């Protein structure tokens, strides 16, 4: 084999030892010499087996499900409780527009509060003209510091114009802003449906009662803030 030039971990060799015309550069080929790098361990907690597998330049240390559970138990985890509602106060903002739906949602919310031991005197219901007006009232109630959570109930049903999109988007962003600006959980319980049948199905029909679900969320969030996030 013809002599070649070494550059670190690779050699440059002519492809052939046959004579090469002087007016051309010789064709060059590369011969690589693999290098064994030091082994580095990687903690792969997402893998389930307990064995270790070597790879090129690294190894993967696998943890068992038992190890992961122990790690989870060692970390402090905060969560609200739906059974610790005693002493918590709630406000419910209800839109009067589409009242046939919002009344059913309100009834579902009140039934859930009662089921989870929230006293009637700890609940205030505030009526507003429509879902568009929910946000500003929810923020005002949150900033009053009288309530641990504000539940927002409304129903926006699609019509023949784009008015539906404007009201639905404004209601959602209004409730979100109310919670962020007041520092009190403001729960979104506004239905946005294509027709009246969809709304009725979600106000106590075959799809359940979204007012009841929102009330349960309000209890959990109020408990989380009151017992773990009160600074």
From TrEMBL:
SUPFAM superfamilies from the UniProt entry: Lumazine synthase
Enzyme Commission number, as recorded: 2.5.1.78
Pathway: Cofactor biosynthesis; riboflavin biosynthesis; riboflavin from 2-hydroxy-3-oxobutyl phosphate and 5-amino-6-(D-ribitylamino)uracil: step 1/2
Record's keyword terms, sorted: Riboflavin biosynthesis, Transferase
Role noted for this protein: Catalyzes the formation of 6,7-dimethyl-8-ribityllumazine by condensation of 5-amino-6-(D-ribitylamino)uracil with 3,4-dihydroxy-2-butanone 4-phosphate. This is the penultimate step in the biosynthesis of riboflavin.
GO molecular function, one term: 6,7-dimethyl-8-ribityllumazine synthase activity
Transmembrane parts of this sequence: none
Protein name per UniProt: 6,7-dimethyl-8-ribityllumazine synthase
Higher taxonomy: Eukaryota, Viridiplantae, Streptophyta, Embryophyta, Tracheophyta
């Amino acid at each position: 084999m013809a002599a070649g030039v070494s550059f670190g971990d690779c050699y440059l060799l002519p492809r052939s030892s046959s004579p090469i015309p002087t007016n051309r550069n010789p064709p060059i080929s590369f011969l690589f010499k693999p290098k064994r790098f030091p082994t580095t361990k990687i903690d792969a907690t997402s893998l389930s087996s307990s064995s270790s597998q070597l790879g090129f330049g690294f190894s993967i240390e696998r943890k068992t499900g038992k190890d992961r559970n122990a790690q989870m138990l060692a970390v402090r985890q905060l969560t609200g409780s739906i059974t610790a509602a005693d002493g918590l106060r709630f406000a419910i903002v209800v839109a009067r527009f589409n009242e046939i739906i919002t009344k059913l949602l309100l009834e579902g919310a009140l039934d859930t509060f009662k089921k989870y031991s929230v006293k009637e005197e700890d609940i205030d219901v505030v009526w507003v003209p429509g879902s568009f007006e929910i946000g500003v009232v929810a923020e005002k109630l949150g900033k009053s510091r009288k309530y641990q959570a504000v539940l927002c109930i409304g129903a926006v049903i699609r019509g023949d114009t784009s008015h539906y999109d404007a009201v639905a988007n404004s209601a959602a962003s209004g409730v979100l802003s109310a919670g962020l600006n007041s520092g009190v959980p403001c729960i979104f319980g506004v239905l946005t449906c294509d027709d009246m049948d969809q709304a009725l199905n979600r106000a106590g029909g075959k799809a359940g009662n979204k007012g009841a679900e929102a009330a349960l969320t309000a209890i959990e969030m109020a408990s989380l803030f009151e017992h773990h996030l009160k600074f």
